[in-house]
Amino acid sequence: MPSERDVMRDATGTPPAENVVETLTQTVTQTVPQTVTQVQAGEVTAESVTQRSLARIAALDGEVNAFLHVARDQALAQARAIDQKRARGEPLGKLSGVAIAIKDALCTRGLPSTAASKILAGYEPPYDATVVARLRAADAVIVGKTNMDEFAMGSSSENSAFGPTHNPWDLTRTPGGSSAGSAAAVSARMVSCSLGSDTGGSIRQPAALTGTVGLKPTYGRVSRYGLIAFASSLDQVGPFATDVRGAARVLGVIAGHDPNDATSLDAPVDDYEAACGRSVRGLRIGVPDEYFSGGLDPEVASSVRHAIDALRDEGCVVKAVQLPHTRFAVATYYVLANAEASSNLARFDGVRYGLRAREGNAGRDLRAMYGATRDAGFGAEVKRRILLGTFVLSAGHYDAYYLKAQQVRTLIRRDFERAFEEVDVICSPASPTPAFRLGEKTDDPLAMYLSDVYTLPASLAGLPAISVPCEPVHSGLPVGLQIMARALEESTMLAVASAWEARSPARDLLPPLAGRA
Amino acid sequence: MPAPKIDRAVVLHVAKLASLSLSEAEADRFAGELARVVAYVAELDAVDTRDVPPTAHVLVERLPLRKDEVKPCLSREDALSQAPEVEANGFAVPAFLE
Fold first, then answer.
1. Element (H, E) at A481
2. Pairing state of beta strands A193-198 and A99-103?
3. DSSP A201
4. Cβ distance B93 to A351 under 8 Å?
């Protein structure tokens, strides 16, 4: 477990060794906008940025297991092409030369995309997800695909078919989930940014547990085309980054209308980076009592309250708000998300892609082939959720569970509508506890589900939310402040996030492991 | 309403609906786990939802419809490139008609 004295500070504090810190300040602490500026100015090449990222992955990922696939050759070729573009005097994109990691739930043309499931082992999509195409067009360099809970179903990465990811702050602990590898890769500074997806907290919870910035956009803000679907009415793609501006930069690249996604919003994309650093004086912050009650670790509570106090000192007005249906969010979510999942995952049937069972009856009978393929290809948690989802949609149970949960979802949305008449953003913890130990909750699916209690409501309401590091607990483990905003008000959320980040004691903290390469 | 009983038979029925071949041992394990989760979600019964419309989707009213136009799509070769079995330019499956 990292103690305060092991924690490295890149700007101040006592370094363990001069040369390590020098390397750190040069490469490890570089933010996305800083890298872009240097690449565009010709101070560093995209190739050297990519080489550094690949070297850090090679040095650290044996212990972390953030990556399912490292795209070494493709990344270097892409980086060289960017350097050649610059040499020809062509303008470079908003992510020039930035090494980025992509959650394995996103389709990447010619690179494996498995959603950490055996049923998609070896699958190489013939197309790029829209967000991936936009990253490439902005001259980002894709260094690899990151580990996750299978089909994004989980909060710890322990449901990956390819072994869990370890938290760079303490390798015996989970980095959270489901976007575990995307969070851990940024935390260990293998990359300065990554993409994850968030259905019920799968970006914000791992961001909180790894001390990174993680942003879930408004539902519909970012295209889902090419995201392997879990729950279509909830899934959103969003960035992780080492700082708020980095997340804002990536969001600006991936946001915007996409005709290939029927739920993509045709609304103008703000200048999100310009919102960072904007004054927050007079902004009203709501603090919901319901998010500071039973089950919340007292050290997490005091860290988050400290952050809210600091925002008050910046001129924000802090008010109590009520979100009375919060306690029904977990039940509502597990009915709706798994109902949608049971439908979405029907496509994995051994016909068009992925695994096909061939033994015995499966070689002769279509139904037997479906059943055997799905039994062999899906892990236990995915089966559990398909069964639950099918159950709540089945004859005799639909009204009692599915329709009822949809009605409670309306009440959860109304809670937020009322609260946002009074305040501009709502602040809360992102997770009730710091990172828990790998293995601690694997025998109790319900306990695992309850670890998402603070992130689920914004997902159900389709609202944007971000997790920003605040003061670690005494043992050194990171804590995340969650900031939620009205639909499409990512800019307001980012202004508050960056105001807090500027004062956060977590700002320059790195996991001990990050200093080892 | 009282929570429905979830036993091996219920699990095997639902598994059949979901095209999952489960062993009996798996079905027994899932029955216990699902019973606990279903009992937990039954807490929604306590919520008064009279006259509350369901939310199937947020922000639906803001979604534009696109024009119905023919546009380029994946080539046949690309679409078939990941199939476990291809025959006569199509996806091949075990026979399902006698």
1. strand A479-485
2. parallel
3. S
4. yes
Asked if A332's CB is within 8 angstroms of B44's CB, the reply is yes
How are beta strands A284-288 and A425-429 bridged, if at all? parallel
A492 pLDDT above the threshold of 80:
yes
Buried b (16+ CB within 10 A) or exposed e, B46-78: ebebeebebbebbbeeeeeeeeeeeeeeeeeee
8 Å CB contact between A139 and A106: no
pLDDT digits (tens, 9 = 90+) for B15-41: 999 999 998 899 999 999 999 999 999
ipTM, 2 decimals? 0.94
For A431-481, the pLDDT digits (tens) are 999 999 999 998 887 788 888 999 999 999 999 999 999 999 999 999 999
Nearest CA in chain A to B39: A331
For A202-233, the pLDDT digits (tens) are 999 999 999 999 999 999 999 999 999 999 99
Residue A379's φ and ψ, nearest 5 degrees, are -80, 175
Indicate the SS3 state at residue A21.
helix
* Structural domain spans, chain B: 1-45
Determine the Cα–Cα distance for residues B87 and B93; give it in Å rounded to an integer: 9
What are the Cα distances from residue A450, in Å, to A156, A304, A453, A463, B37? 12, 19, 5, 20, 11
- Tens of pLDDT, residue by residue over A304-323, are 999 999 999 999 999 999 99
- Test B54 with A446 for CB contact under 8 angstroms: no
> Which residue is associated with the tokens 């090679």?
A58
Task: Provide the 3-class DSSP secondary structure of residue A5.
Answer: coil
Nearest to A480 by CA among A211, A104, A291, A160: A211
Q: Enumerate the β-bridge partners of residue A37.
A: none
- Give the pLDDT confidence score for residue A25 in this predicted structure: 45
CB spacing of B85 vs A371 below 8 angstroms: no
Positions of A annotated as catalytic residues are 103, 178, 202
* Domain A10-280+490-516 class in CATH: alpha beta
Share of chain A above pLDDT 90, in %: 89
**Domain residues of chain A, as ranges?**
10-280+490-516
